[in-house]
Design goal:
Structural class: alpha/beta
Low-confidence stretches: 549-558
């Protein structure tokens, strides 16, 4: 997205510009102190760039900074040729050349959390770049204080020893792999997981996994989670007691696939899913991370899975409507277990003197045809809700800040709600209070009505039985309901907000679509007993692990 691109370009310009400037100041002027200060600033910029661009290659800039620091060090000492400083220069040159390849090699190693095994080499290798930056900063400080060169040499040799240990262990793993697999593979064989959740997605997508982890744990069988991107490991590992294994390569994936595994679950259509689907001894089950009428919810790639767990008949119809032919026996209706804690309410909203409205704008998507975001026109909606006397819970999509325009629009809505809360005392919720301190289920339970873009939030909300409105952000007009059938049992809010007052009245007063909404609830979320709603999913999952399990039959619609 544009915001990420701007940050990456700014980081690149700062890193390169400060490195060149530091070297020129030290080499061509007598301002050694200023040159060393600029060198430290360049190191800080390099560290920031690595946070923004983890794959950034700053070799040339690091060489320039190191050269500038060493030239400045020699000037500060002013003792002619210094063997210790020459040795420091050689060690630093070796480290600058070796740290990058060692980091890359370490990143290809299998890693694990929540397993009784220590994989120190990948962890140390991942920190070598930071260690080099700290070392250069230490050498710059030693130069500024005119400390003996042996001080810098000792620090350089210490970091060099760490690099040497990593290099030796990586070489041993490559050329003399341990018999019976590595420590992670051995620990997994002892754990004997029966199923695996495979996940590949950009950073920030952890919610797709964490929403399923409590229910995977309730299956009551040992399992593990396999991740393909290192940025996801800390958050996912903190959300479960099950082993979480990072497999950046196919070789690492092969080591993690222990013989006890029988089923593989997936929560999206990531391209790397194909790396695991090639193991045909497993039963491959797609769970999805939400149910909505968005185009990706009828992805033809779903056909490659052995089973597709769906929330209700509407999901099956969605594939057919999109022209995606999938055999009927691949579909299993299991409901949407994440809604089990949502409170069901049958009384009308009009009974509430001070209604609360949940507004959940989605993000702009990766492509124009998946852009259902209503933030550009949402200010009118928020103002009308405030005029109506409603309290608003504003809960935006986690990816909203990936688009600078969306981030600005969201900030404007936050300002409006904050100002009204200060003026009237209405309990508006926004920012961290709505997005992190409360779960989506808690937001749903607090609200009397929903306004949402086309997203999985509507399907979850549908379980509550409360009224909702759907924003038509495209140019579909009268065909909007044809494309997004769930909107038929809600109130469609036009993009130009020309019917916003009527929609708010329908939501909070008349609610003429109440009966239609309850029928849609069964089609989209199944018809399972409320006191054991999640059991439909748990039973279906166990059925794939044990042949004598059967999915409970749905009740007849009354």
């Amino acid at each position: 997205m544009r915001g990420d691109l701007v940050r990456k370009l700014l980081a690149r310009v700062l890193t390169t510009g400060l490195a060149v400037l530091a070297f020129l100041v030290v080499a061509l002027t007598g301002a050694t102190g200023w040159g060393l200060a600029l060198a430290v600033a360049a190191l800080a910029a390099t560290a920031w760039e690595r946070r923004v661009r983890p794959s950034a290659d700053g070799l040339a800039e690091t060489v320039l900074v190191a050269a500038g620091i060493l030239v400045g060090y020699a000037r500060r000492l002013d003792d002619g040729f210094d063997p210790a400083l020459a040795a420091t220069a050689l060690v630093l040159l070796g480290l600058v050349l070796l740290v990058g390849p060692l980091r890359q090699a370490g990143a290809l190693e299998i890693r694990a959390a929540n397993l009784p095994v220590r994989t120190w080499t990948p962890l140390v290798a991942a920190r070598l770049g930071d260690a080099l930056l700290v070392l250069l900063a230490v050498v710059a400080l030693a130069a500024a204080l005119a400390l003996p060169a042996f001080t810098a040499l000792a620090a350089a040799l210490l970091v060099g020893a760490g690099c040497g240990a990593v290099a030796l262990d990586l070489a041993r793993r490559r050329f003399r792999p341990p018999a019976g697999g590595g420590p992670v593979g051995r620990a997994l064989r002892r754990h004997q997981p029966e199923f695996v959740l495979h996940f590949s997605a950009p950073p920030g997508s952890e919610y797709q996994v964490t929403m399923w982890l409590p229910y995977l744990e309730r299956i009551g069988r040992p399992f593990m989670v396999v991740l393909r991107e290192p940025e996801l490991l800390p958050a996912v590992a903190a959300a479960t007691r099950a082993p979480v294994v990072l497999c950046p390569t196919l070789k690492a994936l092969d080591e993690a696939l222990v013989p006890s595994l029988r089923v593989a679950f997936y929560v999206n259509h990531g391209a790397k899913n194909a790396h695991l689907i090639r193991f045909n001894q497993l039963t491959h089950v797609q769970l999805h991370h939400g149910d909505s009428d968005k185009a990706p919810s009828a992805n033809p790639v779903s056909a490659i899975f052995d089973k597709i767990f769906v929330a209700g008949q509407a999901a099956i119809d969605r594939y057919a409507r999109a022209g995606v032919e999938i055999p009927a026996d691949k579909f299993v209706v299991v409901g949407r277990p994440q809604v089990e804690a949502i409170e069901v309410r049958r009384e009308p909203v009009a009974a509430s003197a001070h209604p609360t409205v949940l507004y959940t704008p989605t993000w702009t998507g990766h492509h124009a045809d998946a852009n259902y975001c209503s933030l550009p026109v949402a200010e009118t909606l928020i103002r009308r809700l405030i005029d109506r006397g409603a309290a608003v819970i504003l809960r935006a999509h986690p990816y909203t800040d990936k688009n600078p325009a969306s981030a600005r629009q969201l900030a404007r809505l936050t300002e409006l709600l904050a100002a009204d809360r200060a003026k009237t005392g209405r309990p508006h919720l926004f920012g961290a209070a709505a997005a992190r301190e409360l779960t989506l289920t808690e937001c749903v339970n607090r609200a009397d009505a929903l306004v949402s873009d086309v997203s999985g939030v509507i399907s979850d909300w549908l379980y509550s039985g409360k009224p909702y409105a759907v924003t038509d952000t495209g140019a579909d007009g009268e065909h909007f309901v044809e494309r997004f059938p769930l909107a038929a049992s809600g109130y469609v809010l036009r993009r130009d907000m020309s019917n916003v007052d009527q929609v708010i009245t329908d939501l909070l007063d008349a609610d003429p679509k109440a009966a239609q909404r309850w029928a849609a609830r069964t089609r989209y979320l199944g018809d399972f007993p409320a006191d054991a709603y999640a059991e439909a999913f748990l039973a279906a999952a166990r059925r794939e692990l044990e042949a004598d399990w059967a999915v409970p039959a749905q009740r007849a619609v009354v």
